[in-house]
Amino acid sequence: MIDLMQTIINIFLPPRCLLCGKILSEHNGLCADCFQKIQFVSEPQCARCGHPFLSETENFAAIHQLCGHCLQEKRPLFKLRRFAFVYDDFAKNLILGFKFMDKTLYAETLANMLRRAGTDIWAQKPDLLVPVPIHRRRLVERRYNQSALLVKYLAKQTGIAADYTTLQRIRYTVPQVELSGAARRNNLRHAFAVKNAAVIRGRKVVLIDDVETTGSTLNECAKVLKKAGAKEIYALTLARPIK
Known about the structure:
The protein has twelve helices and seven strands. By secondary structure, it is an alpha/beta fold. Mean pLDDT is 88; it is low at 4-9.
């Protein structure tokens, strides 16, 4: 009966590509043309941060499994960091629509991409999925936290528990996109806090966000989670710019 009802619905309201509106044969989010425009990350990549090795020099470095940055990092905050695709002009339009233009229908499709990108993280058997929080003032302005929506679907897909309240943004800050370098780090200082350390203590936590640019936001979140006693911290984001 349910299949019949869905068939009838599809006749009058056929599934469409979320981006271009092309009619699809199945509810898979994106048409083939739009899907191919996304630069998904694949091997070879840094074993710790997930940065792809693109040049011949980097491919040689892949023998060591770590990129230059991670080789120099003495005390990494994250055990693993992964992202689904490269932040280019096409990805920018996709994410901005999801983040600022009420395109919340993108959430399930984007969460599917995160699930595939996080294969190495799931193998570590994490305990909690935690979205990067936004300040309550910004939540009122925007009406939703895009990272929390990703966690909602990702928790269903992976079976990993989600926690939306323990990590909090306690200070309203200027949007990171308006700043650069040291200003980004200073802007986020003391902006996050853990409400109940008992929820975090001894747990393996996966931080979820839409875009990682300089990493300042994820780093600040990781610091307070470490202080609260997190056993291991992972980061999983939709996109990251590649230089």
